[in-house]
Task: inverse folding
């Protein structure tokens, strides 16, 4: 692909992210050095007051007083992030190992169960734990019912509940990359490492040291063979043959090293001699436990541990779905099966309007981001970028790297500066920028895997670029494009922070509306809406799996 066509394909992604994300970040950075107006807004001159207020605050007499509140908040955030990472690592590594040890069909089922929470709205997953941990939640009601406590335990709105919610949200993100890494390991090496002679502690390192020493002793002229001279030259007869005496000494040393290693192996493997039942006197007998070959696919305790993790992931969701069919107005008091709250949600005009806004924004953002991402992936993998490839790749990946709250604030500042108050259009633009990398990654990975052999064959048959793309490249990319589009749609439908910051009157999305209902309290209507969103997520996950299965059958 030529440079002009590459520039034409990569330009939309660079321009959209550059204009609506990179420029707003520089504008917000410039605003941070300006003087704040008493009634809002900023103006000149430039100052560092905003950064000084990070550590100091002005007292009543306009003097600066040290205030470490922001420092404590940042340190607490770092503490929660580190603790979440370590806990997710400890929980995710055994689960990933167990998945790798299964056959292909079980792997697909377990990966489906692990990745399913990723497709469910984050706000809904958080609400599930609010339903369980609040003062009138299931845990406190159960403890009071059996007489353990008389007053509700403070289970919610503390560091423990925050850590629980973070682990619940990010555990699938830890399992998937660990699994992808373990899957590429050649486990025949593990089976070889657990050979009968290597099942003792430190034996491998001891063998390596003895092998080095034996090689040093076996080198001719090394001066380590008893009775041999270290003359710096190999001892040879006049007919250029090795000295027979030296060969005999070397052979004796090799046999002694081998016998020593065999003795160490027997001791480590638990060989027993005379007096062992079922063995003749003096006949070696191996320990039954050591005689069994190591089966790395059957690590004790991992099935139960993985089952407990799956219960941890799905129990809150099942509780939410169950209580969405509760006929009682009291959320955690079951009084019978009923569809009352679903009917009430369907008849609520505000909910229907918010749901329609979410679908319109998600569909528009999915179409725009998928087209831009596909063109960008073709340019990155098939195009000619003479310089700045790393800069372009980093710019496209910015929505994945920059915190979403920063993206939301800078986008709001940019739209306010330009006077853009177009409701749904603002949200479509913001969601498109945020969804581009999610739609680009599957397409880029597919282009790398399929190579350029078929495309080169098409060019050899005198196919022009458009026909080559339409008949060769596009059919091969179709499953990846569909997967990227589904991911972009779910991300847009799930988004809360950007929607809350950028939305205006008449453009409220469903997550923002649900959040407003949650602030008023836990109600059966929220349970019903959450169940509907959960079913929608399941439909899209099933669609993605069907597309992937069709792709595997076709190729």
Result:
């Amino acid at each position: 692909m030529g440079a002009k066509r590459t520039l034409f394909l990569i330009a939309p992604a660079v321009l959209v992210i550059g204009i609506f994300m990179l420029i707003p970040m520089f504008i917000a950075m410039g605003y941070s050095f300006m003087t704040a107006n008493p009634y809002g807004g900023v103006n000149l001159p430039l100052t560092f007051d905003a950064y000084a207020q990070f550590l100091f605050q002005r007292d009543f007499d306009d003097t600066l007083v040290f205030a470490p509140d922001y420092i404590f908040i940042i340190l607490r955030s770092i503490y929660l992030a580190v603790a979440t990472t370590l806990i997710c690592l400890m929980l995710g590594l055994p689960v990933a190992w167990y998945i790798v040890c299964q056959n292909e069909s079980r792997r697909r089922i377990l990966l489906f169960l692990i990745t399913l929470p990723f497709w469910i709205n984050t706000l809904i997953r958080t609400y599930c734990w609010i339903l369980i941990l609040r003062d009138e939640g299931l845990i406190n009601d159960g403890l009071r019912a059996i007489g353990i406590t008389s007053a509700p335990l403070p289970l919610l709105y503390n560091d423990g509940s925050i850590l629980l919610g973070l682990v619940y949200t990010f555990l699938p993100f830890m399992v998937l990359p660990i699994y992808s890494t373990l899957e590429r390991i050649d486990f025949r090496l593990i089976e070889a490492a657990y050979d009968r002679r290597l099942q003792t502690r430190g034996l491998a390192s001891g063998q390596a040291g003895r092998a080095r020493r034996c090689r040093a002793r076996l080198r001719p002229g090394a001066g380590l063979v008893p009775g041999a001279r270290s003359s710096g030259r190999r001892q040879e007869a006049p007919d250029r043959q090795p000295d027979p005496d030296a060969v005999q000494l070397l052979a004796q040393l090799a046999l002694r090293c081998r016998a020593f290693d065999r003795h160490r192996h027997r001791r480590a493997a638990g060989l027993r001699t005379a007096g062992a039942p079922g063995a003749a006197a003096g006949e070696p007998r191996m320990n039954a436990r050591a005689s069994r070959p190591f089966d790395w696919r059957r690590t004790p305790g991992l099935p139960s541990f993985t089952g407990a993790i799956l219960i941890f992931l799905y129990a809150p969701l099942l509780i939410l779905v169950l209580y969405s069919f509760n006929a009682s107005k009291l959320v955690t008091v079951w009084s019978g099966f009923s569809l009352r709250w679903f009917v009430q949600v369907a008849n609520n005009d505000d909910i229907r309007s918010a749901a329609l806004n979410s679908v319109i924004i998600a569909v528009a953002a999915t179409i725009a981001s998928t087209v831009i991402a596909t063109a960008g992936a073709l340019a990155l993998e098939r195009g000619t970028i003479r310089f700045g490839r790393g800069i372009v790749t980093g710019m496209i990946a910015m929505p994945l790297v920059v915190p979403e709250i920063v993206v939301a604030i800078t986008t709001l500042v940019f739209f306010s500066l330009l006077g853009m108050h177009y409701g749904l259009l603002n949200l479509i633009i913001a969601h498109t920028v945020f969804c581009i990398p999610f739609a680009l990654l599957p397409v880029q990975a597919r282009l790398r895997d399929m190579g350029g052999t078929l495309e080169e064959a098409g060019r050899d048959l005198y196919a022009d670029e458009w026909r080559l793309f339409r008949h060769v490249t596009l059919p091969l990319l179709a499953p990846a494009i569909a997967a990227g589009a589904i991911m972009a749609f779910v991300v847009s439908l799930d988004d809360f922070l950007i929607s809350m910051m950028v939305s205006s009157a008449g453009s409220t999305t469903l997550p923002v509306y649900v959040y407003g209902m949650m602030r008023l309290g836990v109600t059966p209507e929220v349970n019903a809406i959450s169940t509907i969103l959960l079913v929608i997520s399941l439909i899209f996950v099933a669609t993605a799996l069907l597309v992937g299965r069709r792709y595997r059958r076709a190729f």
About this structure: Residues 222-241, 271-293 have pLDDT under 50 and may be disordered. Residues 349-382 form the longest helix (34 residues).
